[in-house]
Write a structure and sequence with these properties.
Blueprint: E1 11-12, E2 16-19, H1 26-33, H2 36-39, H3 47-55, E3 61-66, E4 69-78, E5 86-93, H4 102-116, E6 121-124, H5 131-140, E7 143-153, E8 159-168
Parallel strand pairs: 5-6
Antiparallel strand pairs: 1-2, 2-3, 3-4, 4-5, 6-8, 7-8
Helix pairs in contact: 1-3, 4-5
C-alpha cells in the first residue's frame, strides 16, 4: 500500500500533471506496461511489480496524468552526493497519448524542478534500438554521451546496448522549454 502522505506537490504543465502515486494507479499502470510497444522496453511487469517499483516508492515515482487519467510514470532518481548533482530519469507513457509530446512535457516540467533545486545534470539511458524515445529526448536538448555496452538483458537472455544521454543546467538554466500547445508557449 502506498504511503498516505505525499512527498511532493504536484507539478502542472499545459496538458500534464506530475503527482505522487496512489494505490489506485497500480492497475492502470500495469495495463500500460502490458501494451506491446511499452512492454518491448519495460519487460515483465504485473500489478505486484508495479506496486513494489512505483506505487510503494513515492520518493522516486511521479505519475503522469492527462485530463485526470493516469497515462504513465516518470521515475526521478536524484543523487545525494553534493559533488555530483545528477538526477537519473526513466519514463514510460501509454501508446494512446503518443504523438502529443506528453513525455517531453513531463520531462521538461520535472527537469525544470530538478534544476531549480540545485541539480546540474539529468541523464537518461534508453535502449539503443528505441529510436522514438531517443528522437524525443533529442528534441528536448539531450545529447548523446556514449554507448553503454551490454547494458540490458532482454527476454531470452540476449544483451543489448543502452545510449547514455544527458542534459545540463548550462544548456537550459530554467529547464528545457515545455512543448508548444496550439501554437502558444505556456506562461512562465
Amino acid at each position: 500500500m502506498a504511503p498516505d502522505s505525499n512527498t511532493s506537490s504536484p507539478l502542472h504543465g499545459p496538458l500534464v500533471t506530475l503527482r505522487d502515486p496512489l494505490d489506485g494507479d497500480a492497475v492502470p499502470l500495469a495495463s500500460i506496461l502490458s501494451e506491446p510497444e511499452v512492454a518491448e522496453w519495460w519487460v515483465g511487469y504485473d500489478v505486484e511489480r508495479v506496486r513494489s517499483e512505483f506505487i510503494d516508492r513515492p520518493e522516486t515515482t511521479r505519475i503522469i496524468e492527462v485530463d485526470g487519467r493516469t497515462v504513465g510514470v516518470l521515475c526521478v532518481f536524484r543523487g545525494d552526493d553534493p559533488e555530483y548533482p545528477t538526477t537519473v530519469m526513466h519514463i514510460f507513457i501509454s501508446t494512446d497519448v503518443r504523438g502529443r509530446r506528453i513525455g517531453e512535457e513531463a520531462l521538461a516540467i520535472a527537469i525544470g524542478r530538478e534544476f531549480a533545486e540545485g541539480m546540474t545534470r539529468i541523464t537518461l539511458d534508453p535502449n539503443v534500438h528505441n529510436s522514438g524515445a531517443i528522437r524525443s529526448y533529442e528534441r528536448l536538448g539531450f545529447q548523446r554521451v556514449g554507448v553503454l555496452r551490454d547494458y540490458q538483458v532482454r527476454p531470452g537472455g540476449a544483451l543489448e546496448d543502452g545510449l547514455l544521454m544527458d542534459l545540463t543546467r548550462r544548456d537550459f538554466p530554467a529547464g528545457p522549454p515545455v512543448p508548444e500547445r496550439d501554437g502558444q508557449r505556456p506562461p512562465k
